[in-house]
Design goal:
mainly alpha; 7 helices; 3 strands; 70% helix; 7% strand; globular; DNA-binding; WH-like_DNA-bd_sf; DNA-binding MarR family transcriptional regulator
Length: 146
């Protein structure tokens, strides 16, 4: 399991670097792309804290990225009727266009990455990753083990 975890760390770093290169011409990074995707997949405006939770990321880091994307006109803030201070994050038309362009670049890249891999192996790997994530989100945090 330790070897798997170390390889996941290495893979994560390589995926981030490759993603950065893929979308750099759009003025995005992997982190910015991830935030835009999280806003889109949420299906409705959400506060930064909820986006961070969905991403499994630190709220302060997501807030910084959201603020940067807002300054560049890719995201906007709307009042939150349920909480005065926690504004809702919404995608602008420009942000939607940037995300869609990134996804068009991503499609052939994913095809290349999946070449030679078996669908069943991909499904099994995905299931294992989801199970590990579930354990970490529920009861597998390091603080709880100490």
């Amino acid at each position: 399991m330790t070897d798997l975890i170390l390889d996941l760390f290495r893979l994560n770093n390589r995926m981030i670097n490759a993603g950065d290169k893929l979308v750099e011409g759009l003025g995005l990074t992997s982190a910015r792309w991830h935030v835009l995707g999280t806003v889109i997949t949420a299906g409705r405006p959400q506060p930064v804290a909820w986006l961070a939770r969905d991403m499994g990321a630190n709220r302060q880091n997501v807030q910084r990225i959201v603020n940067d994307l807002e300054k560049e006109g890719l995201l906007a803030f709307e009042p939150n009727p349920h909480h005065r201070r926690a504004q809702l994050v919404v995608l602008t038309d420009r942000g939607k266009q940037a995300y869609e362009t990134a996804m068009h670049l991503q499609a052939p890249w994913v095809d290349m990455l999946s070449e030679g891999l078996q669908v069943e192996d991909i499904k099994t790997t995905h299931a294992v990753m989801k199970a590990l994530r579930s354990k970490l989100e529920g009861h597998g945090d390091v603080e709880e083990q100490a």
